[in-house]
From TrEMBL:
Cofactor(s) named in the record: Ca(2+)
CDD domains: FN3
Stretches for region Disordered: 348-375
Fibronectin type-III domain location: 270-361
One Pfam family of this chain: CBM_25
Protein name: Carbohydrate binding domain-containing protein
Keyword Signal annotated: yes
Residues in coiled coil: none
Keyword field: Carbohydrate metabolism, Glycosidase, Hydrolase, Metal-binding, Polysaccharide degradation, Signal
Gene3D superfamilies in UniProt: Glycosidases (3.20.20.80), Immunoglobulins (2.60.40.10)
Signal peptide (UniProt feature, chain positions): 1-28
Length: 1016
């Protein structure tokens, strides 16, 4: 494609951003900057048929007015490389209801930067970043950019228009969340429209329409897109439509359809006023939250107005009920109000104002920025930070179980590794070839054995036991990015610690202190705040719990039968009292913030709304206050520049809560801070722990990993608690046979098909089915393939053999299959679809056969969570991903171990072959135990990569393209002239990867790396 077409597709924002209206001075242009360009793709049939439009020299900019109350609208702009217009800019004129427009002549410029204003000092300049716009028709609606003509005009030219037959096409967007739509089509026997097609007009909420002139044709082939690279191409098949009126909704085509907007009454009713607005400041940041508004149709977002400071009035659009405002002025009073809005643009009255005063700016390192590249390019190394490498012994802490667990006998405190140690050993991880590091949760934890990080207490604070001077969490993120490595943060939305969640709810009393329990409960100290690190002076303990006990029933106690002895005793034989340990049924935790039941059926509805364990107080995630607390907390880590979230216990939060609140909030925050492309590549992957070997978890779709990769396909109650039950019952009623299917992971013959991500939820998954079957690589391969059509896009699946919880088939031991089996598993993971992931130490078979976790009942040194630092002590410098320049001490010996050599070369090979990173696959025409073909094609970058793979066993590929193939393992060259290639068995753990030489930048690389113990 030409530069024009690429620019046109790449400059759109693929998700809502926070559009700001700023009272600027009367002179001067808004500061440059803005969202990063978004990537885009062309649908399957159109990919081969679309032609360059070439040479566009203008941009027609449309601006949404329905939710504005301005008297006039102006476009203030600068062509790429040119000067800004004089303030206020070019006047915009009405084009169709709710929209104004202006056309900019660009000359040779490939786009423009822009801001909008009312001519009287009120600005929408995209939060000070301005809007980065391309050419052609562009729509800006409440901060969202799309490449379309919302009035149904020139999104492209009708290729065969003018008289004859017509097709009126209605497209349903209600379950897609699209703010705009284009129809890209070709009449039967005709040619395709230019990408992205013709703009469709919104006729009523959830329905877009466009009438196509067919000429003599009686039908058309079509695909739809949102103007920003997200396509609905009918799962790669495109849509076949006829003349007349048709509707397309949720992949169902209805010919001769009735008008879906017939009888629709325009919505003129505004939402209710947001209530309960609160604001809290930390440093120069403010977190604002409020209760959700209601509406006769639906609330679509909120508008936050801030006054105070030197920047004047700022109005921000957000889809969430929490707003984080960063980089404010020090020690400054700010006032906030909130208005709710609906799809028709109706705005509520302003909420009651709240005021807050900022503090001092923290002396922290500069915030980072996510690397923002395709996550499939980055193999993942998973570390338990506290057990990996100790860079600072001063933050080591043993906790209340140090002696009882036996850790003291090994001088091995549970909190031992830290960010300083991880920073010092990034070169070890890079030298192995990994470019992403998944770390355990970083928030301040509180439990008796909390080194793993899954008992969050203060979600807004990094655990001090992980940080050091010059080695904060921000320092780790920045250090990793400087080496081209990503940081994926483990996050928990499902539960807090048994001590509650600071800033949301903390129990005031837990139990009775007597001589048996003196080791657990301490004397109160109102002047001391727990942080896990600081030693309380009276007790001499860093794990002090003195604010959580009482000798008499505390005032306001809600816990039933508080302090009464029970028939139960602790393992030590101590009498247990009522309310001494948390219980959801004792009314100890308020139902506003926490669920009130125990899980009874792990495949039942209660698994999403009840407690897992008495140490894990289960959040009521259907409550807006809880949603606000968690969104506000994790926004802070997004702002630090983390590259993605691994979501713990994702299955225990209803999917509708993910798709309504948490996932959109993540996307919105990343988009606002770093742009749409980085938002799309911010990697969210969920742990949906389905420990069975079948495709659907014992037939329960709501508890199967792939379920969470999809958007809901039905409309549910506006009340989240009701909606969670409605979705559960609806989807279980449909059952496995009624679930959506996808071809996004599969080749179309030998051709790459453009993925259809129109129904993607925003959450990818850990491949639990392959994990369960990795006792044998062949089982993992065949089980993985069997599930891929039910995952939205399995090329993003995170694939591992074992983890900090389980080995294959729910084994409680670290993998013991042997070195050859490990090598075979790795060879499959690094060449099959998905993202290979390795748990720390598996490259040396560290603690193989050891029990992975026994809690405080045995020393960590004897478990699979043992300290790894002794294995990698010394010095190491990486010269690249998979190569080491120099190493000395124990780490040098570790780097010589066979699986280390194996994974280094696998990473070298995978990094050189795009098809092994992002390619779709097929086993059509392929014979062999673990054999397949993969291809990845990207027209925008000119990449086309095709590879034939077999692991351990011989294989034959039939019906493949003729040409020259080169093996990346041996360098062997084969010339295919009859569409067939055969190879013998390379041996256990070995593989063959024959890459088709497509010429130019797509030359087959030949042999990559040097022969090793397995790859040879």
């Amino acid at each position: 494609m030409t530069r024009w077409l690429r620019r046109r597709l790449l400059t759109g924002v693929a998700a809502p951003v926070l559009g700001l209206l700023v009272a600027l001075p009367a002179t001067g242009a808004p500061a440059p900057g803005g969202p990063t360009a978004a990537d885009a793709a062309v649908p399957s049939a159109a990919a081969s048929a679309a032609e360059d439009a070439g040479g566009a020299d203008r941009a027609t900019v449309h601006y949404w007015t329905a939710s504005r109350d301005w008297d006039a609208y102006y476009l203030h702009y600068a062509p790429d490389g040119g000067e800004w217009t004089n303030v206020p800019g070019a006047a915009m004129e009405s084009s169709c209801p709710g929209w104004v427009t202006a056309t900019v002549e660009l000359g040779s410029a490939g786009g423009l930067r822009a801001a909008f204003n009312d001519g009287s000092g009120t600005w929408d300049n995209n939060g000070g970043e301005d809007y980065d716009l391309g050419t052609g028709s562009i729509a800006v609606r409440d901060g969202r950019i799309s490449h379309t003509d919302p009035c149904g005009g020139a999104g492209g030219d009708d290729p065969d228009g003018g008289g004859g037959n017509e097709a009126t096409v209605w497209f349903g967007t209600g379950t897609l969340g699209w703010g705009a739509a284009n129809i890209h089509y070709r009449p039967d026997g005709g040619s395709w429209t230019d990408v992205p097609g013709l703009g469709m007009t919104e006729v009523c909420p959830g329905w877009m329409r466009h009438t196509v002139a067919l000429g003599e044709a009686t039908g058309l082939t079509a695909a739809f897109n949102n103007g920003n690279g997200t396509w609905d191409n009918n799962n790669g098949r495109d849509y076949t439509l006829t003349a007349g009126v048709s509707t397309v909704e949720d992949r169902v085509v209805t010919p001769d359809a009735d008008d879906p907007c017939a009888g629709h009454t325009p919505d003129t009713e505004a939402p209710t006023v947001p209530s309960g607005v609160t604001a809290s400041a930390e440093g120069v940041s403010v977190v604002l939250s409020w209760g959700p508004s209601t509406d006769n149709v639906a609330v679509t977002g909120y508008r936050v107005t801030r006054t105070g400071g030197g920047t004047g009035t700022v109005v921000t659009d957000t889809a969430s009920t929490v707003h984080s405002d960063a980089n404010l002025e020090e020690r400054t009073l700010y006032t906030y109000t909130v208005r709710a809005k609906d799809a028709a643009g109706n705005l509520s009255a302003e909420s009651a104002p709240v005021t807050v005063t900022t503090g001092d700016a923290p002396g922290a390192p500069a915030a980072g920025e996510p690397l923002g590249t395709d996550p499939r390019e980055d193999p993942i190394y998973f570390v338990m930070t506290a057990r990996f490498y100790d860079g600072d012994s001063s933050n080591n802490r043993g906790g209340s179980q140090h002696e009882r667990s036996g850790n003291a006998d090994y001088d091995d405190p549970m909190f031992r590794g830290d960010f300083k140690g991880l920073i010092e050993r990034l070169d070890y991880i890079k030298g192995l070839g990994f470019s992403a590091v998944w770390i355990t949760p970083v928030v301040l934890n509180r439990s008796d054995y909390d080194f793993h990080g899954y008992h969050g207490w203060d979600f807004y604070r990094v655990d001090p036991r992980l940080e050091s001077a010059g080695a904060s969490y921000q320092d780790l993120i920045n250090a990793a990015h400087a080496k081209g490595m990503k940081i994926y943060q483990d996050v928990v939305y499902n539960h807090s610690s048994r001590w509650g969640a600071k800033g949301l709810f903390v129990p005031t009393a837990y139990g009775v202190r007597d001589e048996q329990w003196s080791w657990l409960y301490d004397e109160p100290n109102e002047d001391f705040a727990y942080d896990g690190l600081t030693v309380e002076p009276k007790s001499g303990k860093s794990y002090w719990n003195g604010d959580l006990w009482s000798t008499q029933e505390p005032s306001g106690n809600t816990c039933v039968d508080w302090g009464k002895p029970t028939p139960h005793t602790s393992p030590e034989g101590y009498r247990i009292y009522n309310c001494q340990w948390p219980s959801p049924t004792s009314e100890m935790f308020p139902e506003e913030y926490y669920h009130q039941c125990w899980i009874g059926n792990w495949e039942g509805e209660d698994s999403r709304s009840c407690w897992l364990h008495d140490d894990l107080a289960d959040f009521n995630t259907e409550n807006p206050a809880v949603q606000n607390y968690l969104i506000g907390a994790y926004n802070r880590y997004i702002d630090m520049g983390v590259d993605g979230f691994r979501v713990d216990t994702a299955v225990h939060v209803p999917r509708v809560i993910w798709t309504r609140h948490f996932l959109p909030a993540i996307e919105q925050r990343v988009t606002q801070r770093f742009g749409a492309e980085k938002a799309r590549n911010f990697f969210v992957f969920g742990e949906v722990a389905a420990f069975v070997n079948d495709k659907w978890n014992r037939g329960s779709v709501n508890h199967s990993a792939q379920f969470f990769t999809w958007q809901p396909r039905a409309q549910y109650s506006a009340d989240d608690a009701t909606a969670a039950l409605e979705e559960y019952e609806h989807e279980n009623g449909l059952g496995p046979a009624g679930q959506p299917v996808s071809a996004n992971a599969f080749l179309d013959g030998n051709s790459y098909r453009t993925p259809d991500h129109s129904r993607f939820s925003g959450m990818h998954i850990i491949d639990m089915r392959m994990h369960m079957n990795f006792g044998d690589a062949r089982n993992a391969f065949h089980n993985g393939k069997d599930s891929d059509d039910s995952v939205n896009d399995a090329t993003y699946n995170v694939v591992y053999v074992d983890s900090h919880d389980f080995g294959p088939n729910k084994s409680h031991e670290r993998y013991t299959g042997g070195t050859d089996a490990w090598a075979e598993n790795m060879s499959l993971m690094w060449t099959f679809r998905g993202i290979p992931t390795l748990y720390y130490g598996s490259e040396t078979e560290f603690r193989k056969g050891a029990q992975i976790d026994c809690g405080p009942s045995c020393p960590l040194e004897t478990t699979g969570r043992a300290y790894y630092g002794d294995e990698i002590a010394g010095s190491v410098t990486a010269s690249g991903f998979g190569t080491v320049a120099e190493a000395s001490g124990p780490v040098a010996q570790t780097l010589q171990k066979p699986l280390v050599k194996h994974v280094q070369r696998l990473n070298l090979i995978r990094r050189e072959i795009p098809a092994l990173q992002k390619g779709q696959y097929s086993t059509e025409g392929v014979s062999g135990e673990m054999a397949f073909k993969r291809r990845y094609t990207d027209a925008a970058s000119g990449v086309d990569s095709f590879v034939l793979v077999t692991v351990s066993h011989g294989a034959t590929w039939s019906g493949i393209p003729d040409g020259t193939y080169r093996d990346a393992v041996t360098g062997d060259v084969r010339t295919v002239t009859g569409g067939s290639l055969s190879v013998g068995a390379p041996g256990t753990g070995n593989l063959r990867a024959y890459v088709l030489d497509l010429g130019g930048s797509n030359d087959a690389p030949g042999k990559i790396g040097s022969d090793g113990p397995y790859l040879r």
